[in-house]
Every structure is written in C-alpha cells, then in structure tokens.
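tool=predict chain=A
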Amino acid sequence: MSAPSPAGPATHYELFAGLRDAGVTYLATGAVALVLHGVPRLTGDVDLAVAPDATNLARLERLLAAWGYGEAALEAGADGVPIRRFRHPASALAEIDAVLPSATAFEDLRVRAAGAHLVDLEIPLVGADDLLALCEARGTETGIADAAGLRLLAALRAGGDAVGDETRSEQVRKFSRWSAAARLDWLLAAARLAKGLSPEARPLTRGLKRRHWYPNR
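tool=predict ok
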C-alpha cells in the first residue's frame, strides 16, 4: 500500500490495513466493535483500545499524523481510563479515539479478543463479554442500549427466543448475518452522509488488493 494520504483513510478497510502495516497493537472497541460483532449501531467515531507502551503509541501517532489527524486534549473516560482523541477536518472517519488501558488490562482484553475477517486482514476486536461489561460500565442510556443489543445477539446465536422489542430483534437477526465488509460499508455510508458526502466511497471496501506500507517502526 502507498503512504497514507493527508486526506485521511477513505474506508474502514484502509484504516485497519494502515494500523496493521504500521505495526500498531490495538483492539477495535466501542460502536465499531459492536458492528463487527453483529449489532447495528450508527457512528462516525472509531474507538481503539491501544497497547500503552511508548513504541506502540509512537507508531500510532506517526500514522495518524501522516493521515492528517490532529490531537485534541487528553480526556478521561467514564471509567477513568485515559483517552487520546484525534480529529480530522475532512475525512468521513473524522474521530479516532485511542483508549489507553493499563498494560495489564490491555493484555487481559487481548487474551479474550475476537476477530473479524475483512478482505486480506483480520481486525482484532474486544470480545463480546468484555464489550458488554464496558457498555454497562458507561452507565449511559446509549451504553445500556448497546449492552442490550449484545445480550440479544448472544440469545439469538444460542438459539433462544428473542426478547424485548420485536423490531430490534429482527434488525439484529438480519444484521448479524451480513459479512464484516457489508457491515462496515453500511457504517461508512452513514458516516459519509453525516458529513454531507455521497454515501459511496471509492475505493470500495470489498475486493481491494493492497501493497503493504511499512513506515519506520
């Protein structure tokens, strides 16, 4: 793959392939992880749990700077974990939040991590049980709804009866059968529309063939 453009990543595929090629150790979390697990959730943000060692953070900083992201102030999440927020003025993927758990906490998440296959890469993501716990810990209306979606997905996959709102159950049932590429295409289209862009990004997520880009690590 060629060097990152300061216009930012055009697709989630480009983002995650860039993280892979730059050697960044991370797990997708937040709404993108919900989508990759199979729960529909609209967002323009990308949340990453990032291994907090200095070398890994330097790789992430170089990549995001090359893409044209600037860093906002360091903040503390609802659970007190530091979050470094990176913003892009033009990209549809305008907000990337790097969540920085302790080294021990990150390794615990990594041991229980899941993965989603997209074209020629595997996207590591926070496991469903850990994601559920994180959603509940937020204590917000959105967090409670996200946790309910994960419980519903688990019940459907276990062959149990759907509970709660029938429309939501059917949404989760259908969405969870989509491929990871289709889920991310849906998410990207919504993010682009929210930015006033056409819903279709080029190059498309599916079918991409990329050369690896290896920056100084």
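The two ends are 16 Å apart (CA to CA). The helical segments are 12-21, 30-37, 54-67, 103-111, 128-138, 141-157, 166-175, 180-194.
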